[in-house]
Amino acid sequence: MNLQTTTQQDQLLDWFKSYPISENSSLSSFTTSGIQTLDFLKPILKDFYPGSIINSTTTNKPTIKNNYSLLIQTIATKKPKFITDIILNLNPHTTDVNKIPFNIFLSTTKNWLTQFTNTLFHKINYKQLFNSHYFIPSYSIKKWFQIAINLARLYLFLHNKYQTIDYQKFFHDLQLKPIYSKIFIHINHIPNTSENNTPSLQIHNTPKFHIHITINIFTQKFNTNYCIPPFHLIKPQFDNWFQKFFIHYKKQFSNINEQKVYNYIKYQITTATNNEYKKLILQKPELPTIRSIQDRTNYATKTAIHHIHTCTNLEKCKILNPKTTHNVYNLTSYYFKQSFNTIPIQKHVYPPLNLSTLTSATFNTPLPFEHLYKLADQSEQNFIQLNNTSTNPKCLSYFFYCYLKAYFESAATNNEITKLNLKEALNKISSKTSDPQILARIIAYYDITQISKPTITQLKKNLNKSYLDQANQYIIKKLKIVIPTISETDFIHTFNISKIIDKIDDNLFF
Prior knowledge:
By secondary structure, this protein is mostly helical. It has 21 helices and 5 strands. The chain has 4 domains: 9-174, no CATH class; 182-279, no CATH class; 293-342, no CATH class; 357-478, no CATH class. It has helices at residues 3-11, 15-18, 32-45, 68-77, 81-90, 102-122, 126-130, 141-158, 167-174, 219-225, 235-249, 258-279, 293-310, 328-342, 369-387, 393-414, 422-430, 436-451, 456-464, 466-478, 497-508; strands at residues 53-55, 64-65, 182-190, 200-205, 210-218. The strands form 2 sheets. It has a 3-stranded mixed sheet. A hairpin with a 4-residue loop joins β4 (200-205) and β5. It is elongated and about 125 Å long.
């Protein structure tokens, strides 16, 4: 470093050495007027660079460069409210701002800024202010620093102390850092309702970028299976908020990874939610009453999830073979097999069927579906009371088919076809009647009791279609009915063209 450079460096102002922050100064003493003034100045000072060219040199006008005298005039021209209010308060007889001379605005603005900058750098912890939420939002650190150094330069200009500030040292000592978000999560336990049991999210942030999150979780549903709801159920609400939040948050940074910020906040939400759900798991699921493979599977799955949530060290856990991965699938298989030793199958108790109303059944009348439904419903209700279970469509369907088969067996007995095969039964009944509906019911009886088990809906369709078609085909074949063919000759005369021409020729030579 040569002598000239050293001399220039020594002439630069070491700001924090010349204007140290008093131990008694604080940010809390900054008034509302001070904040209003700062808010007004920030958008002006962030793009103000002294010495930058405003108008280039022309033949008639010299070059105009930015300076702090022009800056104060610009501020006075804007007639900020806090300046206007001071002038009007001192001049109650004047209500029209436009009639007040500009030099009044200029002098008042200069005096106001002189007092403001003096208070800022002598009474306030300005370093704390420049690192506070009063300053940061909506600006990058570069713009934020530009505002700070312009305030320092403005102070020097207004107090006739102007000197070039050591730019790099000022930036280093100021230690500008962005405000990082703080996350506050509150979780509500909501009882399940029939209308909605999906987790919900309310989220908002403050100007300080404090993120407040409220999550509603439904405990009753969780306790039935220990399955923690996935994040995607609240993702639309989260995404909608994050898009608006990040637009302002990123302005503090010259380079920031949006996906990392997204993932970090998401991680905090999922971690807090998962931990809250795990607090609800007090002990292993109680041994249930198992009456089906589905019951056993549900118990094994719930126990496996409970183990994953509560096991303190899955890698050292000895419940499975060391080479077997501790996941839901493997643990469920383990607890499923183990359950046969701890929980034997408990068979259901079935109520007796009420067959007294089916003794007069016959194929000569349509199937009494409504009556069979009522009988099945009564039996299901009795089944629920005997086994302490809840209503189940499969259970209702089971009892319906029990009554349907009982009806068919009674009808077969009354029509005296119980010892006959289908062909023999059709021959016997068709000798008395050719009604295809009756024969269709007989075909249904043999199909359901010996071959297939269609659903109730399909049975109704078959009686009007496939069973009925088979009955009609049987009648046609037995009675040897010939189905007439219809052609266009039944509607149009067929002419012999040659004969017509011969007849015409004969007439010509007559």
